[in-house]
Structure formats: C-alpha cells, structure tokens
C-alpha cells in the first residue's frame, strides 16, 4: 500500500525539482517509505497503517491539484479565448485527477469496512455464495480500485510533466494535446477520449 501511494507522490515531487536536487527528493522518498514500513512492522497496528497511507494519498492528490492549477494559470488569454490547447487539456487533467482521487477514497472506504467487519462479511459471502459473494469481497475491491486510481494519478503525472509547453502554434499545440485511442489503458484512455469529444 505504501509503495502504491509513494510511486505517484515521488513522480509528482520530481516535476518542478531541478536536476541537481532530484537525488535529495529520492533520498527523502525512500527514507519516508522505509520509515513508514518500519513503523507499521514495529507497531503492527492497522489503524496507523491506514492513517499513513491516507496521508500519502492525500499528499499526492493535493500536490497534483496544485501542479495542475499552476500550469493552468500559465495559460495565455488567447488560448483561453479559443478554448483549445492547454486549457482544454488541463480541464481534462483536472477531471482525471478528481476521478483518481474519488477512486482512492472509495477504495479506502471499502478497505476500512473490510478491516472493521471482516468476519461478518466473510459469513455473508458464504451465505450468498458464488458468484454474487465476490461483490462482498471488499479487500479485493480495495486492490482493484486503488490500482486503477494509482494508474490514473500516474497518467496525470505523465500529462502534467510533459516538457513541451504547447505554445508553438495552433497545429502543433492541438496535435500535441490530442490523446489518441489506445495511448492509455482502460479506464483512462476511453475517459480522456470521451472528454475530448464532449468539448
């Protein structure tokens, strides 16, 4: 869980970090990851584990929002008036960030329910039987949803850390910002394509 949260957080921290300071960020990230793991192993407390994970995810989401807002604030007035280029892309990135954050929250909620009511859910799954009992496998849904959310955050990082600033003319800007079908896996690729078509 800590690694799933630290991967996007680490990538986000590197976006505006000068190359000569990136090794410090790496040392900070690895130290934080190892410290949190050691605390979890030493205390063997699921509540502390969940709290640390939630702080890491919240930090990644807030940092992603801040980066998206700062890049969107740099959009010039002509691009905003035309409704093309950066502004459209950062609207899509904002929605993708929100969807990823929402999935993390839902996954975390499922995990908390599973931790608190594991025995009851296990009994209920046995009563319901297969295949419907799988819907009550909240720990499994936690893994699926948090994996999808982590992927969404990494796509947001990929899109926001793009080095090209898209100010090199209308044709290049639109070509650069167009996400093609198949460029990103489900659910991100279809979601981005649908948002682009709705503009």
From TrEMBL:
Keywords assigned by UniProt, alphabetized: Hydrolase, Membrane, Metal-binding, Transmembrane, Transmembrane helix, Zinc
GO molecular function, one term: metal ion binding
Primary site of residence: membrane
GO cellular component: endoplasmic reticulum membrane
Origin superkingdom: Eukaryota
Transmembrane segments: 49-68, 92-113, 140-157
Record keyword Transcription present: no
InterPro entries per record: ACER
GO biological process, one term: ceramide biosynthetic process
Signal peptide: none
Membrane-topology annotation of the record: Multi-pass membrane protein
Cofactor entry: Zn(2+)
Keyword Transmembrane helix applies: yes
Annotated binding of Zn(2+), by residue: 139, 143
Compartment(s) of residence: Membrane
UniProt xrefs under Pfam families: Ceramidase
Family named by the database record: Belongs to the alkaline ceramidase family.
Name of the protein in its database record: APHC-domain-containing protein
Species of the source: Lepidopterella palustris CBS 459.81
Lineage: Eukaryota, Fungi, Dikarya, Ascomycota, Pezizomycotina
């Amino acid at each position: 869980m800590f690694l799933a949260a630290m991967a996007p957080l680490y990538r986000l921290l590197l976006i505006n970090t000068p190359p000569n300071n990136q090794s410090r960020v790496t040392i900070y990230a690895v130290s934080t990851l190892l410290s949190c793991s050691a605390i979890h192993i030493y205390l063997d407390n699921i509540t502390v584990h969940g709290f640390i994970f939630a702080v890491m995810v919240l930090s990644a989401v807030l940092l992603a929002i801040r980066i998206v807002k700062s890049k969107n604030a740099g959009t010039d007035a002509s691009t905003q008036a035309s409704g093309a280029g950066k502004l459209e892309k950062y609207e899509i990135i904002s929605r993708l960030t929100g969807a990823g954050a929402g999935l993390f929250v839902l996954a975390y909620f499922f995990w908390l329910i599973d931790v608190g009511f594991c025995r009851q859910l296990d009994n209920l799954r046995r009563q319901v039987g297969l295949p419907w009992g799988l819907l009550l496998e909240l720990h499994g849904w936690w893994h699926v949803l948090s994996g999808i959310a982590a992927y969404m955050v990494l796509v947001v990082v990929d899109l926001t850390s793009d080095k090209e600033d898209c100010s090199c003319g209308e044709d290049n800007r639109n070509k650069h910002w167009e996400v093609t079908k198949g460029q990103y896996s489900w659910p991100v690729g279809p979601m981005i394509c649908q948002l682009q078509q709705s503009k």
